[in-house]
Amino acid sequence: MTSSRSYTFRSVDGGHVVKGELLAYWEVESDAISDSYSPDEISSVELFQKWMESIVGQYPTGLIPIHWFVSCEELGLFSYMPLQFNHFGDQSIEGFLNAYSWPVQGGNETRLNWRDLPVIDKLWISNQSTKGGFIQQATGWKPSILQPYVYLPSLVKQ
After folding, report:
1. Quick one: pLDDT band at residue 3, thresholds 50, 70, 90?
2. Radius of gyration (Cα) for the chain, nearest Å?
3. What span, in angstroms and rounded, lies between the C-alpha atoms of 118 and 91?
4. Secondary structure of 13-49 in the HEC alphabet?
5. What sign does the CA torsion over 128, 3, 143, 92 have?
6. Cα distances (Å, whole numbers) of residue 156 to 29, 40, 45, 80, 113
7. What SS3 class is residue 4?
8. CA 115 → CA 13, 137, 152, distances in Å?
9. Do 112 and 105 meet the contact criterion of CB atoms below 8 Å apart?
């Protein structure tokens, strides 16, 4: 059975055909703080608090950048997603379309609409600790596809 997330694309250097399931993977600025911990050491709520304290002064407007990636686990592919907001200013982002053709699906070669990719759930539990998963676990929030920012006060429970 073919997955509805399975796409075919070609590598730019050599043109060999690749097929795999594509997912949208998100990272909120500085969520790599979770790399230093495990869910057995610190709860999602405690780590969320540490993360908030570490970024609050860096973003006085409360708008925290979200970076987007295309992920294909079976191929080991992880690359910047096209069409996302460029938080790096004048610096260009080398991403998926620099290495691969536009993904297509099915016999009629329907081009991927990037907004249709499923956004992964990121968890912070003992058997699955995803980088930055503490944010979704502590707040219940995950971004909409290609959302460029999260407004920090909207994540804090009143």
Report:
1. low
2. 17
3. 27
4. CCCCEEEEECEEEEEECCHHHHHHCCCCCCCHHHHHH
5. positive
6. 16, 23, 11, 28, 32
7. coil
8. 26, 23, 23
9. yes
pLDDT tens digits, one per residue of 91-141: 888 899 999 999 999 777 899 999 999 999 999 998 888 999 999 999 999
Query: What letter represents residue 73's amino acid?
Result: E
Tokens representing 119 are 């956004």
Q: Which two tokens stand for residue 2?
A: 């073919």
Residue given tokens 């249709």 in the structure block: 116
Residue type, 34: S
Amino acid identity, position 110 = T
User: Residue 8 carries which side chain, given as an amino acid letter?
Assistant: T
The amino acid that residue 23 corresponds to is L
7: three-class secondary structure by DSSP: strand
Residue corresponding to tokens 């059975």: 1
pLDDT given for residue 75 in this prediction: 87
**Angle at the Cα of 11 (from 130 to 146), degrees rounded to 5?**
40
What is the spatial distance between Cα 84 and Cα 36, in angstroms, rounded to a whole number? Answer: 28
